[in-house]
Amino acid sequence: MNSKSTSTPVPKHIAIIMDGNGRWAKKRFLPRFVGHQKGLNAVKRVVSRCAEVGVESLTLFAFSTENWKRPEEEVNKLMGLFLKALQKEVTKLHENQVRLRIIGDRKAFDSEIQAHIDQAEKLTEKNTGLTLNIAANYGGRWDVVEAVKNWHQANPDSPLSELSESDISQHISLADQSVPDLLIRTGGEQRISNFLIWQMAYAEFYFCDELWPDFNEASIDRAIESFQHRERRFGKTSEQVTQC
Known about the structure:
By secondary structure, this protein is α/β, with parallel strands linked by helices. It has helices at residues 21-27, 32-53, 72-88, 90-95, 111-124, 140-154, 165-171, 217-228, 238-243, and strands at residues 13-17, 57-64, 99-103, 131-138, 182-185, 204-207.
């Protein structure tokens, strides 16, 4: 796979659980935070490659609602790394026509981070290239609950019995984008860890043993090539898919 001109379609939307930063550092007798720093380099490589091959949306699971349970020092350093990325990387994203979105409950972040999130989204909102979604303080169950709340707020007089799957889909995070076609998880674990649980009902899963800081352009190409060999039936039979 060399470019977006490839004859086999690439996924429109890729979601990634970036796992293994801490283990990468531990294997090298380094502090866990060094693994998170190296993981940011992997993010840059993957964003660039996805834009190059024509992926429309890339959603990265950066910090879950459960990650607050980690040691306070590690959480504080992760917040510092998040702020640094917002301060230093957004201009480059903007220059490359990447549209940045942050999904999750941002109220838990301090005011400086929230301000930079707002600035980054406003700066890039009209860009026409890859949409990069960063899931920060995000949980799939939280997302579904918020969608129901938002539906109720928009339809205060409607009984709950009228709530439909379509209603939730219209109020869930990333409702304005296609649902993920491909989920990638690095680090050898094989679970989705409360990530986009509504949106990934029909996503193809790709698990690999590579730790996230080692993930590179060749890694994302292998995942996409695996996806391209899948038969996506969406409840139909193989014969029906072939006839389409």
